[in-house]
Amino acid sequence: MVRFFKLILATVLLSFFLSVIGAFMNYTPIFQREPNVYYASILESVLFSIVMITPVLLAVIILSFLIVKILSRFRNLSAFGRITIGFVLAIFMITVTIFMMKKANQTNDLYLIPQGYEGDVFVFYNVDGAPKLESEN
């Protein structure tokens, strides 16, 4: 059980370090910023990344730990059988992770584009002075 808590602690530390690295990589210096555009501070970026990364890493670590525990129960299986079970569990874990990440990127916003329009469409949020958008429901 102590090993499991060490894994969780290592996961939290890993998410912190990844968040710090990502925040510095995505930081826009003040002299490169455009007017009337919001830029997150490094602390905001780190906290946001920790909130987004930690649950995914914890899920992967916990599922990996469970896979190792499950595979240790099948000692009498051949090596091929254990590899097959591990492969199936790993594919399941990857599928669940991708599903979770895809759900996190979805929004409930629906934009109506006029029929016959051709070209690019861009959506900008939090623009100062922009007119209020029409919305339904």
Q: Helical content, roughly?
A: 55-70%
Number of helices: 3
**What's the order of the H and E elements?**
HHH
What general form does the structure show?
A: elongated
Kindly give the count of domains.
1
What proportion strand? under 5%
Coarse structural class: mainly alpha
Overall pLDDT: 80
Number of strands: 0
Distance between the termini: 50 Å
Give the biggest beta sheet: none
Question: What does it look like?
Answer:
This protein is an all-alpha fold and 137 residues long. The protein has one domain (2-104). Helix content is 61%, strand content 0%. It is built from 3 helices and no strands. Helix 1 (2-26) runs antiparallel to helix 2 (42-73) and helix 2 runs antiparallel to helix 3. It starts with a helix and ends in a 33-residue tail after the last helix. The mean pLDDT is 80.
Properties at a glance:
mainly alpha; 137 residues; 0% strand; elongated
Please give the structural blueprint.
Blueprint lengths: L1 H25 L15 H32 L5 H26 L33
Helix pairs in contact: 1-2, 2-3
Q: How would you summarize this macromolecular structure in one to three sentences?
A:
This protein is an all-alpha fold and 137 residues long.
